[in-house]
Amino acid sequence: MRYSAAKIFWQGLTGNRGWTPAWRDPEPQREYDIVIVGGGGHGLATAYYLAKKYGLRKIAVLEKGWIGGGNVGRNTTIIRSNYLLPGNEPFYELSMKLWEGLEQELNFNTMVSQRGIVNLYHTDSQRDSYARRGNAMRLAGADAVLLGQSEIRQLCPFLDFDNARFPIKGGLLQKRAGTARHDGVAWGYARAADQLGVDIIQNCEVEGFQIENGVCRGVDTARGPIRARKIAVCVAGSSSRVMQLAGLRLPIESHVLQAFVTEGLKPLIPGVITFGAGHFYISQSDKGGLVFGGDLDGYNSYAQRGNLAVVEDVCESGMAVMPMIGRARMLRSWGGVMDMSMDGSPIIDKTPIEGLFFNGGWCYSGFKATPASGLCYAHLIASGESHPTAAAYRLDRYRRGALIDEVGTGAQPNLH
Amino acid sequence: MRINHPLLGLRDAAEFTYLGDASLLNRPDWQDTNALDNFHNYVYQRDNPAGLHHELWFHEHGDRSWLVVHRNTLTHEIVGVELAHDIAKSQRANR
Ligand SMILES: Cc1cc2nc3c(=O)[nH]c(=O)nc-3n(C[C@H](O)[C@H](O)[C@H](O)COP(=O)(O)OP(=O)(O)OC[C@H]3O[C@@H](n4cnc5c(N)ncnc54)[C@H](O)[C@@H]3O)c2cc1C
Known about the structure:
The complex is a heterodimer of chains A (about 425) and B (about 100). In chain A, the strands form 3 sheets. In chain A, strands 1, 2, 8, 9, 10, 11, 17 and 18 form an 8-stranded mixed beta sheet that branches. Chain A has an 8-stranded mixed beta sheet with strand order 5-6-4-13-14-15-12-16. Chain A contains 11 helices and 18 strands. In chain A, α2 (about 40-50) runs parallel beside α7, α2 (about 40-50) crosses α10 and α3 crosses α10. In chain A, α2 (about 40-50) links the parallel β1 (about 30-35) and β2 (about 60). The radius of gyration of chain A is 21 Å and the shape is globular. The longest helix of chain A has 18 residues, at about 365-385. Chain A has helices spanning about 5-15, 40-50, 90-100, 100-105, 125-140, 150-155, 180-195, 240-245, 310-320, 365-385, 395-400, and strands spanning about 30-35, 60, 80, 115-120, 145-150, 170-175, 180, 200, 205-210, 215-220, 225-235, 250-265, 270-275, 280-285, 290-300, 330-340, 345-350, 355-360. Chain A has 2 domains: about 25-75 and about 180-250 and about 345-415, FAD/NAD(P)-binding domain; about 110-175 and about 255-340, D-Amino Acid Oxidase, subunit A, domain 2 (D-Amino Acid Oxidase, Chain A, domain 2, 2-Layer Sandwich). Chain A is α/β, with parallel strands linked by helices and about 425 residues long. Chain B has 2 helices and 6 strands. Helix content of chain B is about 20%, strand content about 35%. The termini of chain B are far apart. Chain B has a single domain (about 1-95), classed as Folate-binding fold (2-Layer Sandwich), CATH 3.30.2270.10. The longest helix of chain B is centred in the C-terminal third of the chain and has 11 residues, at about 85-95. The chains are: A alpha/beta (about 425), B alpha+beta (about 100). At the A-B interface, α8, β12 and β15 of A face β3 and α1 of B. Flavin-adenine dinucleotide (FAD) binds near residues 37, 40, 62 and 234 of chain A.
């Protein structure tokens, strides 16, 4: 069913009885051409582009739980392309461009809202580094404006500009950045992929790989064995657990990241704001809640919940940059398991096992990457070659010393 | 989380910083013929288990000792804590 304003109007008049499920609930077949493991944003986007752009058929997405239950439905929904390094920035800018046309492409309201992101700076040296970052962004075709204090005052008058320790001197603005509806993105890709014939199979955990003479020929699942010519894993926080079933170790640690939402307030925060002296980022949802987060808890975890020390730290950072936030009541907090890679950048590559592909190591950058990750992974699976924009995301870059380390902290995943 | 420090008793985990898998205690031999592979594994590759994990914590805001904490990554339950020094010493003795 195609969605349109006329259809909403008509359904409204006829008691909304004509809507059908957004995707089918098929029984798994015994054999597919391509099996995608993990029905998060990346898995669904990959299936969609494989069918749409590369014209492939007989594709299944196998999801352990339900669509939207992983990190794709747990993140703080920020989309942006304000990276520095040449391995990263063109990829995230490709993603940004795909976001800009996503709703038309999927015929689904993913609520992409380009209200801008401001990274605040507090010192002269930070200003220099943001000027450099802005230039790198513009070289890759993205937009960036370096703002001084008076311009930031106009944009966000409520910030604590004269804070004795962290005075706000200005910020780097990317106007085209913003937010999107996180689980809407999963639903939109799921529905569009389903319409192209992709089988989306929920409650179907992959429990093992059928590897014969170094070639992967299928998977064992909670709903029986499934054969396939190509098997593509993208399970985010579960990457090490799943790849271990194929006997592979990864340059990844799983860490918990928390997020927080306050009660609904009147429109207050114009876009996304990040604090440059601590780790804190905030935006306001369409429902009015302030959505914010900060650092990882910092230790290996698969628990999907964090500790109070980090709650305190994130709230203190918030108070340091916008003291008014102290009047808002926090409604909810939750955690998600992040696949933190050793250099803070992702991996989209073949594995040493023929027919088995891997996509992971997204850290907390994976939501904004969803469209480009799906497109580049689909390219790799369809053609056997890396997409030119994702050519740096190779699994062997650690051995080659070709790290993509945006923050420059080395092989220490909890610092990325 | 609270960590039962072998010398100081129960301490808030916020007093510590986290380094990672305790396999970092076993630095490979740089003269080994497989040194490149061994160092690649040592620096970058991790088991990253869902379950019992042996990991290095540094008591930065305390006595500045290194601990090996045995902790379940699914529940955050800590099942044992030892001084990293003791573990390294016994590992060297067994080598
Ligand atoms: C609190 C928080 C805030 C974040 N904020 C942002 C942000 O502002 N901007 C941004 O860009 N990114 C953000 N992220 C990161 C982003 O959410 C993730 O990087 C991204 O969603 C990961 O890709 P995914 O959607 O495919 O993952 P997921 O949705 O986690 O998909 C992986 C799927 O694999 C399934 N799976 C696991 N094991 C198996 C198995 N054995 N068999 C079958 N299926 C399996 C899981 O059930 C899951 O559904 C944030 C994350 C968190 C937790």
